[in-house]
Amino acid sequence: MQPNLLAVTALIILSLFNYTNRADIQSINNNVPIKNTYTEVTALRITGETANAYLEKDVASPVVTAFSKGTRLKILNSSEDWYQVTTANGPAWVRKWLATPTPENEVPKKKYVVAYYAENYRGDPLAYTSMQENSNALTALSPFLYQVSSDGNIREKESSFPIYNFINSKGLPFIPIIHNHDPKTGFDKEIIHNILVSPEKRGALVNNILKMLQERDYQGINIDFENLYPEDRAYLNLFMKELWEKLEPNGFLVTMSVPAKTNDYPSSDWIGAHDYGTLSKYVNYMMIMTYDEHNSASSPGPIASIGWVKKVIEYALSQMPPEKILLGIAGYGYDWDLTLNTARTRTFSNTLELARSLAKEKGSSSLDEIIRWDTTALVPHITYIDSNGKAHEVWFENARSLMHKLDLVNQYRLSGIAIWRLGLEDPEIWQQIQEKLR
């Protein structure tokens, strides 16, 4: 789910475990057992509203980072008044009175993998093929299926039975996305505004979602409302509260995809309506779309530089506990035409084809001269001149750049990842996922 969407989306949501206040639930459905596995580590939980982590055991030393209440951390060492913990920036010290040691089995080991399922056109085989080949690495599927209308009704884009039948045969939960995207005009803020401000239409949408879940025997939903009016922020919070209060007691998973941000900007377009702290109270998982740092409407640059992703995570952790968060992972790239100041989406496979073609033109069998590595952003990129003499920059994601983002998932104790989208990605990411998110 990008601002330009790459067409319609679907999301493979991954884990339906650890429902809030649902410890007694044994399964989401008959095919998906729910149990928790844990790492054998010494850990702590931050109990203060916020806790600075210092480079040395001294509040006068530099602050490495800060953690919000509820954050779980691995303990490396301790002294009379301090715990040394792991952070994304290396070891740091936290004052003991701001933290409480937790049982070793309270730190989740298993990570959940979410992937969005979408087709750029009817019959587009990329997503379905990737789903078939990599279903063993997934924990749920969430296709971009249901479009909202201004009266609170939802309509299915097309039949989901082939996708559902395959996922059901694998024993994976099926979590459809409820969205406000129009294929011709993009994400429609007016439709959502008309619903959110009306108690009757909000109630109708909530009831229609519940009815759909009950009739189809799905395990939950994902809400993907984008490009909203900032002024609708309070109404969006209210809608999610009403949805949660209807679905959660009925045993359905509630998830939400939200745009990435490094701070709260309530009056800003695109991100202002999404109040992380309040919305997180009414979801089981929040998929933070940490991609499109640079996009088709911006200047060239990384899709998700490591520094930017860290800032997004750290802001999110100031608003919600880490177990609520699934980190968005991009599988795609953009190719910017520097003459026309436009950009188009590239899959990993056609980016690789481009690199091979450029290497062949140079008489080289190595791609190292073509694909460069940005040592700051920790992402790959390509520069080239096309057949019309126009300069291009291509920034994309691959298995190497993913590795660093998976490290952040583990270091910050997040619940897992959400991949945009199946079929766009470097095939080698799946091995990385299975190795790092065990």
What does this structure look like?
This protein has 438 residues and is α/β, with parallel strands linked by helices. It has 2 domains: 11-18 and 110-335 and 398-436, Alpha-Beta Barrel (TIM Barrel); 43-106, SH3 type barrels, CATH 2.30.30.40. Helix content is 25%, strand content 27%. It has 10 helices and 26 strands. It has helices at 126-134, 161-169, 189-196, 199-216, 233-247, 276-279, 306-317, 348-361, 399-411, 429-436, and strands spanning 11-12, 27-29, 32-33, 43-46, 50-54, 63-68, 72-78, 82-85, 92-95, 99-102, 112-117, 142-148, 154-156, 177-179, 181-182, 186-187, 220-224, 253-259, 285-289, 325-330, 333-337, 342-346, 372-374, 379-385, 391-396, 416-420. Strands 11-12-14-17-18-19-20-26 form an 8-stranded parallel β-barrel, surrounded by 4 helices. The protein has a 5-stranded antiparallel sheet with strand order 9-8-7-4-10, with no helix packed on it. It has a 5-stranded antiparallel sheet with strand order 22-21-25-24-23. α4 (199-216) packs parallel to α5 (233-247) and α9 (399-411) packs parallel to α10. The two termini are 26 Å apart. Residues 2-41 and 104-108 have low confidence and may be disordered.
How would you summarize what this structure contains?
By secondary structure, the protein is of the alpha/beta class. It has helices spanning 126-134, 161-169, 189-196, 199-216, 233-247, 276-279, 306-317, 348-361, 399-411, 429-436; strands spanning 11-12, 27-29, 32-33, 43-46, 50-54, 63-68, 72-78, 82-85, 92-95, 99-102, 112-117, 142-148, 154-156, 177-179, 181-182, 186-187, 220-224, 253-259, 285-289, 325-330, 333-337, 342-346, 372-374, 379-385, 391-396, 416-420. The radius of gyration is 22 Å and the shape is globular.
